[in-house]
Specification:
6-stranded parallel beta sheet, alpha/beta, 6 helices, 20% strand
Length: 147
């Protein structure tokens, strides 16, 4: 099994960390690394990945714009949004824009990243557990049952 991955993040240390995790697993091929949305859009078509790991905040475009573009032009590519921002509407925006997963950088570790990639490639959606718990507590707080 060889899974082709592209990474879009403007922080070189983050790209390097993700790349190290994937290289250690031994069955991934990095087919693109992009520090901004324009370079991704201009180049990704020449070597399409199975999955794109996409940061939300890039210098020239946001992740939702890129996800919509990629979903329209290359719907076969799965997208994992990975970000450090816990803005309430952001996960919904990214999933509605075509992402199959949403992972917080603060939650991510080597094993979880691999698990999330496999979940997405199996055709399932992934939402970071910390966000699920936060959303669940907000919903429960808004709908308290009165005796």
């Amino acid at each position: 099994m060889n899974i082709k991955v592209s990474i879009a993040d403007d922080h070189p240390m983050m790209v390097s960390s993700i790349e190290n995790v994937l290289n250690t697993a031994g069955y991934f091929t990095i087919c693109g690394k992009f520090g901004n949305g324009t370079s991704l859009i201009n180049s990704i078509g020449s070597n399409l990945p199975d999955i794109l790991i996409l940061d939300y905040h890039l210098p020239d475009k946001n992740g939702a714009e890129i996800a919509r573009w990629l979903t329209y032009h290359h719907p076969e590519v799965k997208i994992l949004a990975i970000t450090g921002f816990e803005k309430p509407g952001l996960p919904v925006e990214m999933l509605e824009s075509g992402c199959s997963g949403y992972l917080l950088k603060t939650s991510a570790n080597n094993e979880l990243l691999l698990e999330v990639i496999h979940t997405i490639l199996e055709g399932k959606l992934y939402l970071d557990k910390n966000l699920k718990d936060k959303f669940a507590s907000n919903v429960q707080g808004n709908y308290q049952v009165k005796p």
